[in-house]
Specification:
The structure holds 2 protein chains of 2 kinds. In chain A, 33% of the residues lie in helices and 24% in strands. Chain A contains 6 helices and 8 strands. In chain A, the strands form 2 sheets. Chain A has a 6-stranded parallel beta sheet with strand order 3-2-4-1-5-8. In chain A, a hairpin with a 2-residue loop joins strand 6 and strand 7. The longest helix of chain A is centred in the C-terminal third of the chain and has 12 residues. In chain B, helix 1 links the parallel strand 1 and strand 2. Classes of the chains: A alpha/beta, B alpha/beta. At the A-B interface, helix 1 and helix 3 of A face helix 1 and helix 4 of B.
Amino acid sequence: MAEPNILLTRIDNRLIHGQIATQWASTLGANLLLVANDEVAGNKMRQNLMNMAAPTGVDTRYFSIQKTIDIIHKAAPRQHIFIIVESPADALRLVKGGVPIKKLNVGNMHMSEGKRQVATTVAVDDADVAAFHELKDLGVELQIQRVPSIAPEDPEKLFR
Amino acid sequence: MVGFVLTGHGDFAPGLASSVEMIAGPQPDFDTVAFHEDAAGEYPRLLAAAITVALERCGSAVVFCDLMGGTPFNQAMLVSQARPGVEVVVGTNLPMLLEALMGRGDMSTAAGLADEAVSAGMTSIAHARLDVDEDADDDELFDADGI
């Protein structure tokens, strides 16, 4: 089986929302938004809400992390896939499970108790930083970019 | 590139512009003119000046207004009668602005973008309902090949 055509993987704790639906999907030329998230995989309400956001002609899938790992290599070449995950930990699970993620976009990681703001829309804790280190060591290219039209920020910010 | 000017009552224009920025990032050739009560006398001149700048920079312009028959719309219509290359769209909402901003390219025209904006705006308006069928088998949605 040929390697799945993964255009980009993004960490965004809002998953599919306005920025994804109106900007990223069309800029990338994606025709499949794959949300890899254990909670959403079992939550029809959240799936249906995200389906409302998805642009016409773009399919959506809501797989658990494990199902994504199990099924990703069955993707057809015509499927241009944009994977969206909630956290660096989930991205790391996908990579360790054999999902061929080369480029990881860090979009929205909201500020919360115990986290520190390292970029405009990115807040991390020690566990996040450890996951980013592991991802980098596994050869994944990291980039911080909120929306396609603005310049990426220095990915080294993730390790501060 | 077609120049865009967004205008409306109160903080409609700067408010909507901040929504655009949050979703799509900063936009070139996209100006806003707020219509405030305390500066109402100045408003026609400010709007005409913004449209003039857009025309000078871009050759043609679309003015996005909030309300049919309101002062921002009326003033935009007056300018569009006096100056060739100005199209006016009214009833502006966020989806139509996003669509028109995404659609701007070297080949696009002010009239074409105005039509695209109106079409996108209308399809984005809905009385939304969420039907949740827990028993639905979504496997049938999957293609015979692929995931």
